[in-house]
Write a structure and sequence with these properties.
27% strand; 23% helix; 185 residues; alpha+beta; Peptide Deformylase
């Protein structure tokens, strides 16, 4: 089922997500619905707060980069109760967008290598290193489960320049090709 995406201004996007257990109600269906919602919105990742749930769960699909990185072919990741253990490497600035911030794209600086611990959809524990595009996507979605958004990483001047767009989202004037949740403050 395609779920509505929560947009900038929704309080759930600023809550730190809580860990969940294997008996979380409807977890398998939730994960399936998150992938379906993400694909419908042409996203690469989707975090539970973006569908109104303040829990530590996100899904990503790295297949969009498989031409450049064959190891990403059909690579989907479900990350539950994730904790970034280490961020290292170079600071790399690259444009990011977000389903919760439609029409806004800004350069964000992030480390190009991370080590992360997480549980998969079967609650098998993993600790892996990711770099490049995968590290960026994971850090972006990880921010969501920590109550952050990519605009928290841009300068005050850039925030001022996009203030009109942010206010339009708050006013319910954002245009999307996907379902969005009604604005609640």
């Amino acid at each position: 089922m395609i779920l509505p995406v929560y947009l900038y201004g929704q309080p759930v996007l600023r809550k730190v997500g809580e860990d969940i257990t294997p008996d979380y109600p409807g977890l398998d269906k939730l994960i399936k619905d998150m992938y379906e919602t993400m694909y419908h919105a042409d996203g690469v990742g989707l975090a539970a707060p973006q569908i109104g749930l303040p829990i530590r769960l996100f899904v990503i699909d790295l297949d969009v980069m498989s031409e450049e990185f064959p190891e990403y072919k059909d690579r989907q990741l479900t990350m539950i109760n994730a904790q970034i253990v280490e961020r290292e490497g170079e600071d790399v600035s690259r444009e990011e967008g977000c389903l919760s911030l439609p029409g806004i794209h800004e350069n964000v600086t992030r480390k190009d290598k991370i080590r992360i611990k997480y549980c998969d959809e079967k609650f098998v524990e993993h600790e892996e290193e990711f770099d490049g595009f995968a590290a960026r996507v994971i850090q972006h979605e990880y921010d969501h489960i920590d109550g952050k958004m990519f605009i928290d990483h841009i300068s005050l001047i850039r925030k001022q320049l996009i203030k009109g767009k942010l206010n339009a989202i708050l006013a319910g004037k954002a245009r999307t090709s996907y379902r969005v949740a009604q604005q609640r403050r």
